[in-house]
Queue: 4 jobs
Job 1
Amino acid sequence: MNEVCEARPMIGNEAIARGAWEAGVKVAAAYPGTPSTEILEYMGSYPSEDLHAQWSTNEKVACDVAIGASFEGVRAMTAMKHVGLNVASDALLSQSYIGVNGGLVLVVCDDPGIHSSQNEQDTRIFCQLAGVPVLEPADAQEALEFVKRAFDLSEQFDTPVVLRSTTRLCHTRSLVRTGERLEREPVGFLEDPQKNVMIPANARRRHPKLLERMNALKQHFDDPEWSRLEKGDPKFGVVTVGPVYTYVKEVLPGATILKLSSSFPLPEKTLREFCESMDRVFVVEELEPVIETAMQSMGLQVEGKELFPRIDEFSPEIVRQGFEKAGLLEVDENREEWEIQPMIRPPVLCAGCPHTTSYMALRALEARVAGDIGCYTLAAVEPLRAIDTTVAMGSSIANALGMAKAGCETKPIVATIGDSTFLHSGIPPLIDAVYNQANITVLLLDNQIVAMTGGQDHPGTGKTLRGEETVRIDYAEMAKACGVKWVRTIDSYDVAAMFKNLREAVDYPGVSMLISNRPCVLDPVKIKGEPLRIDAASCTGCQSCMNLGCPALSWSGEFHEGHNKVRIDPLACIGCTLCAQVCPTDCIRPVLQEAA
Amino acid sequence: MTPSNTIAADPIPEPGITPGTGSQQKEPVNVLIVGVGGQGVIMVSKVLARLCQKSGFQVKQSEIHGMAKRGGAVFSHVRFGEQVWSPTIPAGKADILLALEWAEGLRWLRYLNPRKGTFICDTQRIVPPFACRNRKMGAEQTYARETPSVIFERVPNGYAIDASRMAEELGNIRVANTLLLGLLSTALEFSREEWQSVITEFVPPKTRELNRQAFLLGRNWVEKAIQEPGLPSEENTEKVFFDPQARPRIELEITESWCKGCDICVKMCPERCLRLNEGLVAELSDPEACTGCRVCEWLCPDFAIKLHLHPVQGNC
């Protein structure tokens, strides 16, 4: 891991972690979130003597941890997905007034195209709001270098710095040349209440400083080290930033390009000079027209979002189509259209997923279900189709509270929330529901891991990011301490117990909490028990088992009265027995039992 | 694949599709690898990327993580050459489309270079629950109708191999991806030794010998396929399940006076199309949804439900 000065393939996230390690980061904290998760996992692969790396319960906590370390004069970093910044923004928007002692960098990973998120917000607009500079690397090598430069910039200008990545950059593997780690002497805490304590009187003094700093940064970014002018075709120019630069190079390898490192604040002088020498200038940027709007407000004539969409992830094709529309490229006729459309293959809950029973029972109960963020959003579609709302991390419980207080809901109201999401932001709304005496049920789906992002530890697993043993949170005790009177824990694989207890929970007048408790089948260990098989002679093709949505089940090609009989893929089946429990003809049995 | 159509990372002459630019750019080689979560798409692409890197090429390998391992479609772009810009392959520019599953191969065909692309596909079918959605009698599975022979009439080069079954016969279905690497190895200019040394880096030590055999099996299959030209075997291409006989009209007869409102039929109906009416008697609330599966008929403790299937005339 620590070899120096050699090139090896890395995904963007690994390069970001490497850059932070080389920059001498002492403290790194994050809450997992696609596509940013691997950054902290890679940080945790560096020696604990070099740095402290931790999972935090949410992005604001992680950001505050990094801020605390910065106060002590060491370099600190936090990483998050774009919507994580919504959570952390409370801290960031004050810290931008305070500035830094040790360098402070927030890595924020946007998700254009919404591969694994609930929206495609553009982090750069948040940076404008906070008044902090944002750097945007184009590939993994630049990511490593930009992280190091971000720390220098942070200390030089006394400001937090945001490094904006995107899903594509985070997860593209390319060759990266590495360097050595810079060990810095800790500066120590600087006692300066007027700078560090944001009471109104101090905040009023700090705000003008922030504006001065942005001005200074604007001029600083005019330095050629922050933008690269590639001279080519003199007829038109392209202003671009981040991974989109590689798409522009792909479709217009000979164009004149001004590649920026930052889209906020912008190097005004550089941009003016670039536009003066060009007949037409195009701004190509993913998501919001941040650069375009700023350039227009400088009075510069540019073309942008009328050619390159404001939504979705860019690709060489999309960039090409934009330049085709602009009349700079001929329409590519060299494409074959295929009318073939195989069935879609959406992600599904895994075979044996412990969430399955919960949603099967909720659908049978005909409950009004406020959902949350996690793998279990997959239960919102057929065949489980048991989630009515999904908003943001931790929203479920307070959404359910609001539904109850609206006073017109005839169905039982249930909030479903995963263990990690509950720890992230589910506890304050639970207390709120108890405090305001709502009649709701909270179904805590405790699969003992952050499953959706690939199996990270959290306070409920009793393990740290580095896999060391630590205190383990007891949800039932916590709920009781929060004032919940009805708390029960049940086995997620016991269908009858789930139906019975859920009915009792919703019948309880007040806040009730049911904890379904089985580990995720993928992490921390892949669970694979003896597979089940279907006795084809007894299967009537009633499709009761198919209502589980289990990917191990499909049709066998045999029929009973025209109904498709079912078969179980023995490689995919983990032996959870849910299908056997719901089968009306009792034709699903373990393979072993049959052999005996 | 004869040596003449092996794909090299040399400049590939492209007609002038980039007016306004004067420079002669060397185009990278593009390999798109697709499949279903858990099949080893990422392993295949890592092997290829590592091999390219060891051979001194610039290489970019791009995939989307996230919900992929939950049974969804997975894809990985590998591009290598002297200079690689975009991490993703533009549509119509893949020199090789390597599919570990048949329908996934079909899904990405528009990325294949229509003039010189090579389509390599495992004929294995992984049918998702989504394709078994229609529960009506005589329902069709909606997977994909196209067979290799239909596709190979249209692609410049096509190879369909039952790699999963061959791997299973070898001892472990999981080495199907290595077997396909053996196929892929004949289409790219790296030596057999280079391939095998890189594969060894990526597979667990215990499975090295098995992977070596799988690799050679795939590689030798190509030579055989060239010696015996013609369309690939379609014996594994399962037909769409369809029983046109069975589409009767369904009638559910409920004897109200026998029903005591126990709710068993309502709770157990797989289509959730029964309910108790105001008089606490079972009734069919959604006749369109009823598939005539007979679960209610069998489970009713009071014999109050009877299913009638009426043949429909003219429906062959």
Job 2
Amino acid sequence: MGLLGCADEACPLHLAALAPNVGRMSESLIPAETLERVGEVLSGPVTTVIDRREAQRYAYAVGDENPIYFDEVAAQAAGYRTLVAPPTYVTHAVVQPRTAADLRTDGLYREGTRIRLLVDRVMFGGEEWDFLEPVCVGDEITATVRLAAVDQKEGRKGPFVRQVRETTFVNQFGDEVARSRMIGIAR
Amino acid sequence: MSTDTDTAAAAPDLATLEAGQELPPMHKFPDEAQLFLYSAASHNPHRIHYDREYARFEGHDDIIVHGPLQGAWLTQFVTDWAGPGARLLGVTWQNRASGLPGEELVFSGTVTSVDAETGVVELEIAEHTSDGRLLMPATARVRLPTT
């Protein structure tokens, strides 16, 4: 299983309100109040405009110098309206400015909305993306994060909780352009 | 921070593509500078990516490569192979272990299905270290041009 991964505000690590590990073998790790929150909006909607310099800075940082991110002629020849952003960039584009006073000791931002689970540790399990429409420079993207699922499962090392935070990204035309599901594993 | 792809191959041809075919591997060589630049460009202040002492305190061997950076490499691996006329439809990945700066990371993949009518191709892909440690098993869906 994955180690503590990382991420920005979308990181499932933010979700865990760590609680003492007591009586876990027979009991649910998911308090009733948490089950009731499935479907709830956890953050957003926030809207941001895709900026050329920021998207290109991101592509360079990845080391992905695909011409469709840098050369408008190449992007249009490939069938795009204008320069495109790298596929998963949209999730970083919508990170809102925060004060350093909000940083915890691990460097992550304190989160307003927390999901209570009776677990010791939350790990970043993985991510699933659907790319529905291109995200181009200049597009206005609105992101909304929901608690999509919280399920308890039995693993080889005992019970664990799988929690899914789903983010939907909608552009200025009202089209859903992408959907990401971040999977947190807690035990 | 560089990328090597074994062949600068032409975009795949839907007419001859079949399940079982392998993609040419892609290699990444992340270093501390790249982790720093990715933290900055993705607005990610998580300390495990820049503070070696803190990363070890959390139980890591060193500062670690960001999960989303490895995810972005998986998408690059597919879009570089598929060519600019293709459209990436989806990707999934699981975090199994962490990559470290200074390690060579290898991306590999196999075609699992081809729909010649719609152009949709499914892939099983993965990221390993050069000594064979699996970091991310993954899948991708891409639509190739049909004309």
Job 3
Amino acid sequence: MNDLHSLIQIKGLRDGLLVSLNDAPWAEQQSALLTQMDQQPSFFQGARLALDVGSQILHVNEMVDLRDQLSERNVLLWAVLSESPTTEQTAQLLGLATRISKPRPEETRFASSGLSDETALFINKTLRSGTRVEFPGHVVVLGDVNPGAEIVAVGSIIIWGRLRGAVHAGSNGDGSAKVCALDFAPMQLRVAKEAMNLNEDKEPASPRMAFIRDERLVIESWKPS
Amino acid sequence: MTAQVVTISSGKGGVGKTTAVANIAFALAASGSKVVCIDGDIGLRNLDVVMGLENRIVYDIVDVIEGRCKLRQAMIRDKHLPELYLIPAAQTRDKNAVSPSDMKRVCDEIRPEADFVLIDSPAGIERGFRNAIAPADRVLVITNPEVSAVRDADRVIGILEAEEKHSPALIINRLNPDLVKQHDMLSAEDVLDLLGIKLIGIVPEDESVIVGSNRGVPVSQDPKSRAGQAFRNIAHRLKGEEVPFLDLDKQAGLWDRIQKMAGRR
């Protein structure tokens, strides 16, 4: 019993429970969590549960399996918090939140240290509606960004494909950030603090780049320089 | 026999999931396969109505899962096609009466005895949808050539990809070639362009589909109907046969042109 408790930590939050895991193997932690639930079903019944997996990398099937196991116990998994962008992305793809209302101190630590300015997240697929990618560096997508998908990057955003979704480059206010796409037609475009409405934009599909010049957001055709 | 479990899903409601399930099931059964349909829309069932079997329901899928009857007892045999069965949804319960693992268990029990299990998914991306896709070997995403339906289909495909349900295939339903020609409707190419998955069928708009659904005689039974032909073709493609697509007017998509330009450079 004591062993179980040292593997996982459960805290009450305003709007549910927060379960924190440590670095023990995933299978052990999962079974520890489920055992504890089965021992105190009345405590967990109908709960909203957020899971902090720390630095663990969780795969899609593990996350799906856990969610199903929890839902059988009438517990809703609504958020997965992680230090790993891969796991965060997996959670987002499953429609789970990756943040609980209070920003976590670990996140800022992650953003300010450890990463140099030139870190980029490479996404080798199309981002579909409902996907949100947030990254404290640059984001490169080899694929399309469909309407309803969203990218927020502290650095620049490069899309090798069609851009139809919402993008925000330089989200911390970096005016040197750029947004480039082979077919540039975002639904919403923001660079640092500047935003632009492209509804009136009737340009034919072409490679273009958005950046800030003289404190104004401009879009120019994207040519190899 | 090991049945292929095929789920038909869309995200948005009213695009023709139930109609497609009924029509494809009739077409498969008419060509000699043993088919079991499962209505996944617990609380809002209507596959039984479209298949013309509503007055024969005694047990439903929740009865099977909760052990009140045997699987066989809940399988309603079609009036005309002896190899076509329906497991109806419960009307007096809701989606939470069933879990994804329940659905997997039921499908695994049917697998050895059928060629196809077709699951009609409810609209939305919540519990009912999760239940419907959990046991699927294959998912067919159905959409209309409308911006809102395509957006929802895109979301559903994203979820399927995240769940590693490999290669969903696309059905474009209710395409009106005349409206496409006047540029008042998205063309099949526009839809495919955005969604970027494999196409398994284009069903033209056809009034006889509505008439058939109301009478409980799906239109794929009607040899003259164009929509019926399209559904029969989808059934053949599900069986792995190569069938050419119906001749609908083609238009070069914008993206094709860019790719051509990029290729030339």
Job 4
Amino acid sequence: MNQGKTANKYRDEYSRVMKVLNFRFPHKFKMIGLVGAILIFGFLLGYKFIGSNDLLVKDVCRTVVLLLMLLASMSKDKVEDEYIQHVRSQSYVLAFIFATAYSIGMPLISFLLDLLITKVRDGGTINFHEISAFEVMFMLLGFQLLYFETLKRFGRCETE
Amino acid sequence: MRNRIKVERAELDLTQEDLSKKIGVSRQTISSIEKNRYVPSTILALKLSALFQKPVNEIFFLEEED
């Protein structure tokens, strides 16, 4: 009796997880997400360029950029078949690896450059370049979108 | 794993586009399977088998390293 209840519980949990895993927005949201993210990222760069430094504006823009990139990442492709799902999961794996490597590697590179080229300043203290949560998430989603398109291109064939 | 989808497709005079429409996938999927870059699911293999009217193991073959 208990075994049956446990099996049912696992089955329910499994179907809930699968629902989340298989959830995708319609294809049109991909373009909306990509174009929106590029426009707001451009605005952020311009905002910094004109010398404004309102933290609230920057934080809101960063959050919206991440949300739009997530929207693009979670949107269906034109033809959503098993190959596209396979490519998408591969792109998530690659993005995870490279974003982790980036968040470890960048502070090290920055530290070494500081040590070798710019030399030690400020009374001998060397500051590690701290990576923000935005930077990591931006790289993660950016790598995923990039690898998804790249891996998809590998499957294309010119000859019939 | 190797396959003879390209040969079977040629015998039925189908393009990648035609085949992809018949089994409900993208042309990229057919191209990737033909190039041995993607191993299709059992469902897709059975659809191909039904279309070519041949058993799955006459379309897909295991190699030494499999």
